[in-house]
């Protein structure tokens, strides 16, 4: 986190008006150092009392402290422990799988090496549900590795070398797809083929530049158009491999297609003329079924992963809200969604308490099904004046903004900076008439903060602009030296406040009549 962002969110002036009222009851986020000393004399985590504040004010050179609430401290520690454990487990598991791939052609049948890899995979919290559904995972993964020819193995190695997280994502997508297929009662042969297709479904990203795969902000239209070709590129790559049959090439090329073939992309729609993988009869039905398993497991896996454009994965309730909404748009196979994914999702221990925020950051972007309802309910402003990264560069303001403390990564992640922020930071050179410069107001994106679980999927919630946090707003209000709230932030804070939100209707599986309409409407 950039220093300016930390200061804005957590830093308090000990001598500011109302400092005692704001700080008493909080805890130190960072230890306090005497000027010129390397060790702090008040450690982080210390409760802030009136006596401590008086003691700090007596120290020369100590003018500010970093502080947060005990709840925020507990949440941060829980998140850090969880993220560290998951990262360590992911690195261990994927490292061992990479070892297995390296052994291909020499000692791939070594049973202890495969068992060791699976034990490590099963140690991850995210794979707890695999222990029961895929108890024979050892032999299944060994079969997958055996069925991949040398060229395809090299392709997987190249993908992990090119973009490690995509290689890891492919393995996880295959395993989740196998779990969904097993929960549907598929034969071992079908479960195996879903896993194999998952391992290779994203090989087309070998041909996508890292500048696109690792971009911090949103992709341009041209970049997204290039990204969308990865499914077809993967299908073409696999079609050239002798021992990889056409159904797996077809599945890789169509895993981003929707069940209704509307709004997706791949070899059946946007790249139909570019890539021709002809399949008929039973082969086509098998390939399409495998592709539908991958469509669900790919999204499920991706939503829980950290990405360049969001540093932590989404938490359970947000994942379910998004995937249920995608089903309502016809994205997934109705039967596989209801009897496979939805039933499996609710069996997992993590899903039993989806609104528990002790191990998850309780903020998420506005889910599509809630957007219109909440915008109308609270009359939320749809637009604000904001300059994109490209517009800042065109106006010659980028260096001035960076010097003010907003680093380029932060600008990319926030998709620019608001006009209010520029003025509050006293950045000169902003044209008075932005429309004359071809700059128009931007859409305001919102997110929800869960503050309290009321039970039965009812929560006390707070609406924020996409880049805000409750802590950041609190710091701005408490400190006169902080950047003041803009008009929309003030409106949300003062007029909207806390409200009760019932998520149950948005978390339920669509009813059978709706699923039948989706199924019968597909041709």
TrEMBL record:
The keyword Signal does not apply. It comes from the Bacteria. GO terms for molecular function: phosphoric diester hydrolase activity. It holds the Pfam family HD. Keywords: Hydrolase. The keyword Transmembrane does not apply. This is Putative metal dependent phosphohydrolase. The lineage of its organism: Bacteria, Pseudomonadati, Pseudomonadota, Magnetococcia, Magnetococcales.
